[in-house]
What does this fold into?
Amino acid sequence: MSKTEPGAMMKVLLAIVALSLLPELAGAAKPYMEEVLTLEQAQDLVAGCESYSAKHELAALSMAVYDASGNLKFFARQDGAVFVTVEFAHIKGRTAAVSALATSELAEIEFADQTQPLGIRYLDHLTVIQGGVAVPSVSGQHLGGFGVSGAPAEHDEACGLAGVKNMLAPIK
Amino acid sequence: MSKTEPGAMMKVLLAIVALSLLPELAGAAKPYMEEVLTLEQAQDLVAGCESYSAKHELAALSMAVYDASGNLKFFARQDGAVFVTVEFAHIKGRTAAVSALATSELAEIEFADQTQPLGIRYLDHLTVIQGGVAVPSVSGQHLGGFGVSGAPAEHDEACGLAGVKNMLAPIK
Amino acid sequence: MSKTEPGAMMKVLLAIVALSLLPELAGAAKPYMEEVLTLEQAQDLVAGCESYSAKHELAALSMAVYDASGNLKFFARQDGAVFVTVEFAHIKGRTAAVSALATSELAEIEFADQTQPLGIRYLDHLTVIQGGVAVPSVSGQHLGGFGVSGAPAEHDEACGLAGVKNMLAPIK
Amino acid sequence: MSKTEPGAMMKVLLAIVALSLLPELAGAAKPYMEEVLTLEQAQDLVAGCESYSAKHELAALSMAVYDASGNLKFFARQDGAVFVTVEFAHIKGRTAAVSALATSELAEIEFADQTQPLGIRYLDHLTVIQGGVAVPSVSGQHLGGFGVSGAPAEHDEACGLAGVKNMLAPIK
It folds into this structure.
């Protein structure tokens, strides 16, 4: 995207800044770390979903993995999938990522009082349609969301959960 | 996305419709076919780009593959990539997909008369920033676009072209 | 759109790339082909709808044909149609195209559990308003969507289906 | 789009209103009429463009006709056209329709002082890219705009003008 390499340039700049601050850093707080979804984990999510789909002979799927910040990490559309699955996989995955809930769990909140649905589904870029699942790490941290579309909604969700299972203990 | 399986239901319905019309179809025109980008080809594009990136020790990348219709087919964001690369990879890939041109070729058109740039870059969802390449098939059909972001722009484009080369003759 | 002819230039470039790779291509996979909606088919859709409309003396219509990828192929607005029909015809046609379902079928999915509508109708560029129909080919492939607006919704849909019938066996 | 027929209902309502006002209307001003682009004229625009394109063996085109109010009237995408032509034909046609100028004339205004381009091309839904032409009636009224994309820009504009010529004196 640029004429220079921002990553390398930035590292040098940060090193200079850090060195200049060394005396002050002796008593500084330890850095605050967060566990972050990796590309390998995202690929394991999709691989687990693909295995489930093949086993159950589902229709062609779209699969979208978001990290917890709501940014797309990985996406794949199987050959022959109808195009609306692209939109549904994205919104399901994003919703689960930023809410740390399955979209079906969010539906339960939305309709807890059926006479007064909350209106979560009217908000931009959020959905309560089944098929988005939250992605936890082995240690229980929330890492992101995985959205699946193309099969009946229960299978979409089951695919997503098969992906999570495979990510936590991949068969390699 | 749904409670029922639209793909299967639709196929049955369409088959019924088609069969009911069979006698009238004797003189029907032959179907119009076009070659379409596959998921395997999209994965080969990304694999070729990743090899190039590893060899040249580039910064972390986002890589977006679109089919010729402008629909997302495959996307991967490498660990550590800055988030703006997501947007750049998408718009570069989409532009190359729908225009059948590299974004750098579109830049040449935009600035052919430097005193009167055309304004292509001001249109929504189009960019002339280097790093999106058109994806041809072995037989020379236009299949889609591949957008890369994260490295200096020349390397983004070289990554994309390495992807195309690998797709046309993958090392497996 | 450009000072040079991208289509022609691209074909030459692609041919050169393809030829230079020929020795390596001996084992390449066969191209993946899909049936694509033609302009003639789109015109037959609209002609069939116009006949139905004239026969039933419907109000002036807007009619929008999308291919399965969700890109507009053909559109016509009859004289005297109110302008909102432009928007309705587009969104109905697009929805049917990308979902491979009639918008009335999508409405059944949306309201399968009337106490918990899914929220499909709140998503951008999708509608469950009757009057968009899926367009199959003679061989049962999904080719796109046809959206009609201007008449009562049942007639909009009937117009769309009359278009499909005419496309599959046009009276010429 | 609705359960009732707005056109018919509206006509009855208007008739009632008009009748109730009859005594007051004796000295009322004559209605203000405007000439409006018809669907037949729009089809003649496209037919003229298609003839020009066939004669000059141009690449596949998208063609968009807008009426003077900036609303789409007619659109056709020829088989094999790259998809970006859909976007360009629309914006060119809309710009010519609402400005009553060819997009190339708007470019002359934009760049009249080359050191200080006005910035028209930065505005949403306007372009100065050649290929959109204004559509006059036989009596010289401004009726709309016709946008063409897919060929080199000079040919796009020539196609549009061939369409206008055919509309004003169609060969039938």
User: Anything to note?
Assistant: Chain A touches chain B at residues 1-8, 36, 38-39, 42, 59-60, 69, 71-79, 82-86, 88, 129, 131, 149-153, 156 (CB under 8 Å). The first strand of chain A starts at residue 62 and ends at 67.
